[in-house]
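User: Teach me something about this protein's shape.
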Amino acid sequence: MKTALSTLALLFAATVVAAAPPEHYLHVKVDGKNTKELVRVNMPLSLIEKIIPAINQNQFHNGRIEVGDFHTNDVDLRAILNAVSSAPDGEFVTVQKPDCNIRVAKENGQMIVHIINKEDGEKADVTVPLAVAQALASAANDHQFNVEAAIEALDRAGERTLVTVTDNDETVRVWIDSQNTSE
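Assistant: First, the predicted structure itself:
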């Protein structure tokens, strides 16, 4: 009986450990090619979620950032995000010019912006889960973005690359994964 209870307790403990979601980390990696400067940020999202509400400085208060001169001019940002969320996947905007290409699309619940500047070789890729964008726009007024809600939504979104930017001088990458160090 004692062995059966011990085995049952061990199985229960293993189930609880296995069921616990992994800790997600926000990573920022900046490599300066010419300057040899390196920046690495590896922060658990749970830590960021606790820190954000504690910052009350300048335009940042209570987990929200005030964007002073940002005016939507009677454009309902939340309604637009809801419309995009319910729209089918597809390529929404494509601009092809001699000096740059721009692509804006929705794929698998994410907004994707891809920019190539042909003149200087700069490339930028931004992938934002629509749930994160909606959380960011969930602030009470049009002049605020809800950073705290966006971080929580980002944690639920799971592992992914959010931003990559490359040019002749540096490479920047921002991503979420369950590793406590950057690559």
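Now, about its shape. The chain has one domain: 23-177. The mean pLDDT is 84. If you'd like, I can walk through any region in more detail.
User: That's plenty for now, thanks!
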